[in-house]
Amino acid sequence: MRSLSPSNGRRSRTKTLVFIALLVEAAWTLSCTAGSVSPSPPPPPPPTIAVVVNPMNMSVLLGNQATFTATVTNTGDTAVSWSVNGVPGGNATLGTITSAGMYTAPLDTPSPATVQVTATSHADATKSGTGTLAITSDIALSLTPNRASVELGATQAFQAALTTSAHPDTSIRWSLSGPCASGCGSVDATGTYTAPRILPSPAIATMTAQSVADPSKQISAAVAITSSFSLQLSAPSSVPAGGTATIVATMTSVPGSNPSTALSWALSGPGCSGGSCGVLSAVTTQSASGNSVAAPSGAPNPNTVTVTVTPQADPSKTAQGTFAIQSGVSVSVSPSTATLAANHRVVLNAQVNSTSNTGVMWSVNGIAGGNTAFGQICAVGSNPCQPVTSTTTSQVDYLAPGAIPSANPVSATAVSAADSTKSASIRMLGGSIGSLHSRIEGVPAFRAGEEAYVFLWAREGEPFRVLGWSQGTFRIMKDSRGIERVTQDSAAVPLFDPRTRRFQHGRIRNLPVSCLVFHISIFYFLFS
Question: 519 pairs with which residues across the strands?
């Protein structure tokens, strides 16, 4: 028998103890778990629903259609609802989509021109798929005419043609622009352009046709605004100082045009300015118009006056005429107006210019010396009124009537006794030599201060004669209403009518002057 050393004995005991410990641990473990059951694992979650839209990216022309499909997985309910940019079924601005996924693009390009087409799961509204759609345009425009010249106030029709392979809105938006700003004219919805009536500066406009469906597509035409009317001015070569004359401006426009017919008138001269050149009666706006100019009482030095007519339509077409103011007799009365009570007086002063003969003849409403109905011309300070018989009296009293006259106000007039520009010599039959007097029936006799219309005739180198004697004489009187009337001298004289071989009365009596038809040979005289 082999003996063991002490060290070997200790190693054997250690191994035995470890083994025993392991057996005890195993027995304890078995005793603690012998009565329990282990739980089953939880079921896996259901699969997530997924929606995929095809195509995911595409483009479509305005008004055209595109088809989308939606694939729904992990559910038996594969139904979806469609929307465009969150709008169920879309709308006219974004485009529309049917329940089957048929998308129709809008007629006009939206902003932005990209939309999102979304399919949403019926089984789970939180699950959706999206496709991106670009809306495009192949619109092209052409414009007829591509440039034009349009006369002032005239019209020009423009036409825009739109070509496309799609189905967009074909409307055209017309606009007008240019450096002439608001004075370029106007354009209506059909593309008809109307030029302005006044020429702008610069006279250029731009007509633009723009697609409503695709505003980025537009085309323009240049428009030149032209002014081709003409303006002629007819003025007399001379006007007597204090006299009047008619100046005619004729504006001729191009057929179909309609320029502004407003004209502005002005007088100027090297020897005058403003009213000293004369006075225009009114500004006229007629295309063929007359304007009366009243010359100043004294001729300027130099005596040349220029009348300038400027058309509003085109001031560059100014027309001018020049006339000379000839020195002549003129009369002014001061005061020019007065207000009087019945039977009251005012002193009138007459100033005669451009003649050494300062004598005047006074009348009231055309009646020499006046009368009690309209008022009388009296010697200054005379009471009762003493008529003025001398033409050398330039200062007189006007005595108002006792009652307000039917023609009110009245006019007191001083006429020059010497006006060389309005004089003529008339040879009359009869007359007086000393104490001998000859009076021939039918021959008119005139009184100082009397007014008359007279028909005259003459042989060359001889004085005038009254045509027809009494038949050619029409004396002027004013009635109670201040209306001028004429009576033919022969109305009081029986005249032989060769057709009936009898003497007859009944010629012109108290005929308004406006009704008298004058011949070219008639003259107006104030006798002195």
Answer: none
Segments making up each domain of the chain, as ranges: 50-136, 140-226, 230-326, 330-420, 424-526
Give me the numbers of helices (H) and strands (E) for the chain, helices first please.
1, 46
Tokens of 41: 């694992």
DSSP string across 230-280 = EEEEE--SEEETT-EEEEEEEEEPPTT------EEEEEEBTTB-GGGG-EE
CATH architecture observed for domain 330-420: Sandwich (2.60)
pTM: 0.56
Exposed / middle / buried, residue 174 (Cβ in 10 Å: 0-12, 13-18, 19+): middle
Does residue 366 contact residue 387 with C-beta atoms inside 8 Å?
no
Residue 374, both tokens? 């309209």
Across the chain, what does the average pLDDT equal? Answer: 80
Question: What's the pLDDT tens digit per position in 136-164?
Answer: 999 999 999 999 999 999 999 999 999 99
Quick one: fold of 140-226?
Immunoglobulin-like (2.60.40)
Of 69, 74, 77, 57, the closest CA to residue 121 belongs to 77
pLDDT band at 482 (very low <50, low <70, confident <90, very high): low
230-326: CATH homologous superfamily? Immunoglobulins (2.60.40.10)
Span 326-355, average pLDDT: 79
In whole angstroms, give the CA distance from residue 81 to residue 120.
Answer: 5
Instruction: Sort strands 192-194 and 204-211 into parallel, antiparallel or unpaired.
Output: unpaired
Kindly indicate the confidence band of residue 428, based on its pLDDT and cuts at 50, 70 and 90: low
Q: Around Cβ 70, how many Cβ atoms within 10 Å?
A: 22
Calculate the CA dihedral of residues 356, 360, 428, 443 and round it to 10 degrees.
170
Q: Which residue has the higher pLDDT, 11 or 225?
A: 225
Helix residue spans in 305-403 (DSSP H): none
Q: Distance between CA 72 and CA 123 in Å, rounded? A: 10
Fold of 50-136: Immunoglobulin-like (2.60.40)
